[in-house]
Write a structure and sequence with these properties.
- The chain is about 35% helix and about 35% strand.
- The protein starts with a strand and ends with a strand.
- The protein contains four helices and twelve strands.
- The chain is of the alpha+beta class.
- Strands 10-1-2-11-12 form a five-stranded antiparallel beta sheet, with helices on one face. Strands 5-6-7-8-9 form a five-stranded antiparallel beta sheet. It has a two-stranded antiparallel ribbon with strand order 3-4.
């Protein structure tokens, strides 16, 4: 029962993911970080099949780092989203498809804008102002639709995220428990407490 949320605001992207690793009815871990930092201004929340998610996240992280080493500058969020979409689409047409859903958030230091991309296991990518994956998305998307403000301050964005987390905790059959929340803005990536 994985859940991840993300939303943009005035100069930032907030990404949150639950920290529970479960299989069937068994919780195996309650402190797993499902948000991978890909570069100083780019992060990715992942969910899906346990083996696929970790392997694909590390594959993406290493290739984006290799690009930065070869070209002396990091990929911008839009270029990273396109490369990730292509990687998923290519794996889908092979015998070893990755079953991963991603929320890619980043801050474009060239245009000084926050970007958020919703990517699913079929290689679909779309730039969105807010997004969610997992069972929690059934409850959170309506709240994000109602309360999201693209000009909101970081505190207002965190309050909207807290509203989503509370609603999922209250209404979902199995409460995901704790969440890890990270913010990316012009200063880089940092973890915040909710």
């Amino acid at each position: 029962m994985e859940t991840s949320f993300a939303l943009t605001g005035k100069g930032y992207v907030i990404v949150a993911a639950d920290t529970t690793a479960a299989r069937s009815i068994v919780k195996m871990q309650i402190d797993q970080d499902k948000i991978k930092e890909l570069s100083p201004h780019l992060l990715m929340a992942y969910s899906g099949e346990p083996g696929d998610t970790v392997q694909f996240a590390e594959y993406v992280e290493r290739n984006i780092r290799l690009y930065q080493i070869r070209n002396l500058y990091p990929l911008r969020p839009a270029a990273a989203a396109s490369w990730i979409r292509r990687s998923i689409a290519e794996s889908l047409r092979s015998r070893n498809a990755y079953s991963v859903n991603l929320l890619l958030g980043g801050y474009d230091t060239s245009s000084h804008t926050p970007n958020l991309y919703w990517i699913d296991y079929l290689g679909t990518v779309v730039e969105v102002p807010f997004a969610a994956h997992g069972y929690g998305s059934y409850f959170a998307l309506s709240l994000l639709d109602r309360y999201h403000d693209p000009e909101a301050s970081l505190e207002e964005g965190l309050a909207t995220l807290k509203r989503c987390i509370n609603e999922v905790s209250k209404r979902l059959v199995v409460d995901p428990g704790k969440y890890k929340v990270k913010v990316v803005d012009k200063s880089g990536i940092r973890e915040v407490e909710i």
